[in-house]
Amino acid sequence: MKFKNHKNNGTNMFIVDKSPLCRKAIKRLLENQLQVNIIGDDTYNDGLRQMSFIPNADVILMDVQTTNLLSIYKAKDWLKLFPKTKIIALTLFYDSVLLKVLEEVGFKGCILRSELSKDITPALECVLSGGQYFDSLKTIKNYRYE
Fold first, then answer.
1. Contact status, residue 136 vs residue 119, Cβ threshold 8 Å
2. What is the CA radius of gyration of the chain?
3. Within its chain, how far is the Cα of 77 from the centroid?
4. Can you tell me the distance from the alpha carbon of 6 to that of 121, in angstroms, rounded to the nearest whole number?
5. Which domains does the chain have, with CATH numbers?
6. CA dihedral 47, 53, 57, 61 (to 10 degrees)
7. SS3 143
8. d(CA 146, CA 140)
9. CB of 53 closer than 8 Å to CB of 137
10. Of 3, 40, 81, 107, which shows the fewest CB atoms inside 10 Å?
11. What pairing do the DSSP bridges indicate for beta strands 59-63 and 37-42?
12. DSSP string, 108-133
């Protein structure tokens, strides 16, 4: 499946994750499974070195952790500078407080890392069409979303 952006080229994605190994694996999955254009990848630890890529990205796929909120603060800053940016969070665990914060900051979706290959297609379809994709996490047993 090839995702098209508004210019009918492939969808441009940027990956933000602290682990070079994870970035490489995610990049391979996205390029092979969805044929998207990965225009760059970086870590958020020392500030994004490739900030010039953000305006060119249709979607940013960003690792977020409940133990380190730096990525969420960085995303909030980017969204102030580039309000049309669509960011989808990747997380290891579901957490109702985290989901509320992500939505309040302006994230357009959230996917569990373990479900990435299954959820990335519907998440991209939803986010690229102007929606939000938090549904898969909201339906987890015992999840209370208020």
1. yes
2. 14
3. 15
4. 17
5. 12-138 (3.40.50.2300)
6. -30
7. coil
8. 14
9. no
10. 81
11. unpaired
12. -EEEEGGGHHHHHHHHHHHHHTT--B
To 10 degrees, what angle do helices 116-128 and 20-34 make?
70
Sheet containing 109-112: which strands, arranged edge to edge? 37-42, 12-16, 59-63, 87-91, 109-112
Tens of pLDDT along 23-64? Answer: 999 999 888 888 899 998 887 655 555 567 778 899 999 998
If 0-12 CB within 10 Å is exposed, 13-18 middle and 19+ buried, where does residue 124 land? Answer: buried
What are the C-alpha distances in Å from 135 to residues 105, 108, 123? Answer: 17, 11, 9
Per-position b or e across 53-81, b if 16+ CB within 10 A of its CB: bbeebbbbbbbbbeeeeebbebbbebbee
pLDDT tens digits for 98-136?
Answer: 888 999 999 999 999 888 888 999 999 999 999 999 866
The Cα-based distances of 85 to 4, 19, 28, 57, 78 in angstroms read 16, 23, 23, 7, 8
